[in-house]
Amino acid sequence: MLGTNLDIDILRTLVTAQQLGGFNRAAQRVGRSQSAVSQQIRKLEEQLGKQLFRKEGRGLALTEAGDVMLSYARRILDLNDVAVAAVRGIAVGGSVRFGIQTDLTEDWLPKALARFRQAYPEIEIEVSVDRRAVLIDRLDKRQLDLALLFGAGGRSDAQRLTALRMAWIGSRDQRLKWRKGQPLPLALCTPPCFFRESAISALDQARIPWRITFTSLSVHGIWAALDAGLGITMRTATGLPKQLAVIDSGLPRLPMVEVSLHDGGRELTSAATRFKKILSETLAENLPAKRKAKSSGLRNRSSN
Questions:
Q1: For residue range 125-149, what is the model confidence (pLDDT) as tens digits?
Q2: Does 218 reside within a domain?
Q3: Which of 32, 102, 197, 247 could form an S-S bond across to 219 if both were Cys, CB 3.0 to 4.6 Å?
Q4: Residue ending a domain, choose from 87, 121, 148
Q5: C-beta of residue 10 within 8 angstroms of C-beta of residue 77
Q6: 136 in a domain, yes or no?
Q7: Burial status of residue 256 (CB atoms within 10 A of its CB: 0-12, 13-18, 19 or more)
Q8: pLDDT tens for each residue of 263-281
């Protein structure tokens, strides 16, 4: 029995549509009309005998079969691109210098690095984990090729990938010694720090008094202070250690913060361009589907 041969062009359209958020944008990227793109997807569904998209509000969302096909499509395209480059004798070499904030170095990053290493084993990757201000400075000094950061900050080189809810975070087990009306103890990174400024601004607007009980240059230092019950902080719940939890009792609701990929506004090398592609696809698979952190009430000793 002959197997079903999947069309590489259709798989590329599928991946592009999911990455850009719709058939219309995908059509512009692949140089086809929207109706032609829709026909491609229908052809793929007929080949597979499964529906890949379902209606969700005014748009479309992947079905369970669509999620499975998307995952395989990315792998097939990666292998296709590597095979073409190898046969043509233009295997990509060089290096990529990538900067990332600590909060974002969780389970998806090893996946992205492993995926890239498998596709381009000859390219060297140098990863720097640091604070936003340091990474921006290194990017502008051409010491980094790409940087994944919280907040676009009005920069023209920002490629927005997703947005995450900011949250008040404290110890899951340690009782916080704070009574309503007294200054709220905060553990914050030293300035300049986006989350530090956001926390103070939110409390000031809500007219909640505060005091800084712990400062650190690193997020890991903040996590240790929270675990010891020295105060609370504001970050996202991304990559939250298991001994900490989101606090949602009696504190102001917080806005979303963007996660953006920056290239310094410069033309990327071939190696950096390929890394950016795989990184963006891996983030698209993982960041929007973050598991929601479990919340714990803010336990205090205020009298009723």
A1: 999 988 888 899 999 999 999 999 9
A2: yes
A3: 102
A4: 87
A5: no
A6: yes
A7: exposed
A8: 988 888 888 988 988 888 7
| CATH number of the structural domain spanning residue 232 | 3.40.190.10
Domain closes at, from 61, 87, 113: 87
Instruction: Check whether residue 270 and residue 247 sit in a common domain.
Output: no
pTM to 2 decimal places? 0.62
Bridge partners, residue 130, by sequence: none
Q: How far apart are CA 282 and CA 7, in angstroms?
A: 22
Q: Are residues 16 and 144 in the same domain?
A: no
Nearest to 184 by CA among 154, 214, 164: 214
Domain range for 252 is 164-256+292-296
Q: Residue written as tokens 């970050």?
A: 235
Q: How many domains does the chain have?
A: 3
Q: At what angle do helices 34-48 and 8-20 cross, to 10 degrees?
A: 120
- Segment 165-204, tens digit of pLDDT: 899 999 988 666 667 778 999 999 988 888 899 999 999 9
Which residue carries 């920069």 as its tokens?
155
Residue 59 near residue 238, CB atoms below 8 Å: no
Q: Which pairing describes strands 95-100 and 124-129: parallel, antiparallel, or unpaired?
A: parallel
Candidates 163, 165, 164, 169; CA nearest to 248 is 169
Mean of per-residue pLDDT scores for the chain: 81
Q: Is the pLDDT of residue 218 over 50?
A: yes
